[in-house]
Predict the structure.
Amino acid sequence: MPRKKKKEKRKEEKDIENEFIIGYNSKREKTIPPKKKKKKAKIKKEEKNKETINETKNTKGSKNKIQNIKSVKTQKKPPKKKKGKLRKILKILLKLIIVIGILAGIIAFLFVSPVFEITEIVVNGSNEISESVYIAMSGIELGDNIFSIDKNNIIITMKKEPYVESVEIKNIYPNKIEINAVERKISYLAEQDSKYYYLDKNGYLLETNLAPLDYLIIKGCITDFGKIDIGGRIEEGDISKFNDLIKIVDAVENNNIEAKLNSINIENSNDYILEFEEEKKTIMLGDASNISAKMAWVSMFIREKKGESGIIHLNVEPIFFSPKE
């Protein structure tokens, strides 16, 4: 071991001497070649990088080409979508045709089947007009199909009759018709130009007659009855007064006044005049306010002054009774 170390030391010393003398370095000579190799390696790396860049460019170009080809292919596909839409539309149309066909079959069955032929017509509410007249006005005949009836047209026709206030037509399946009528009734009698006009409580003219019938007589109307058709209504100026008439007549009935009310003068809505001819009493009512309390006074005076002819003043305070001369 010591011999080897000595030899190594000698070599090193020789090397150092050579460096000083000649300027030669054995270590540098050994390290220089690798530097050249590094440059070459760098060049190779650069070449490789260029190749990879070119390859990537080529790959990108190829990808773009592929994408372009795909886009071209996809551009050619829309006709398939159109075909799909057409198929859907055709399917929907077929379904509609089937549904329409089924409905048409059902409708044909309903209108043709003898099951729905009318076998009975019932009329309710016929007092002033007979059942046969209602059936004739409807135009419905036994054997008609229940679905072929035009209800609206029948109602319009029936309401042209003055006594018909409202009417309802019902189909009772499979083969029965029900007519429900609400009729107007004569409530008042108006005299004008030696003629008598019969009115319902709402002021509709129901009929005329040359002879008076036993109804409450209305005096002082502003309506020209000669200009109203049968089924027509009184003028606006009298309608509000007719509303007061309903209150007055109801109050007479509710207060159990047994005496017969013969007439009411409605010329002045602030001072209605009532006549009880059998009791020989005239009532100066005033307006239609506090009507129930006023009728209580009338009932009392009729009982207390029975058989006496006179005027009951309810349009002033205090209320009083004055005998007629």
Notes: The longest helix spans residues 26-75. The chain has three domains: 77-112, 115-183, 188-323. Confidence is low (pLDDT under 50) at residues 18-38. The radius of gyration is 58 Å.
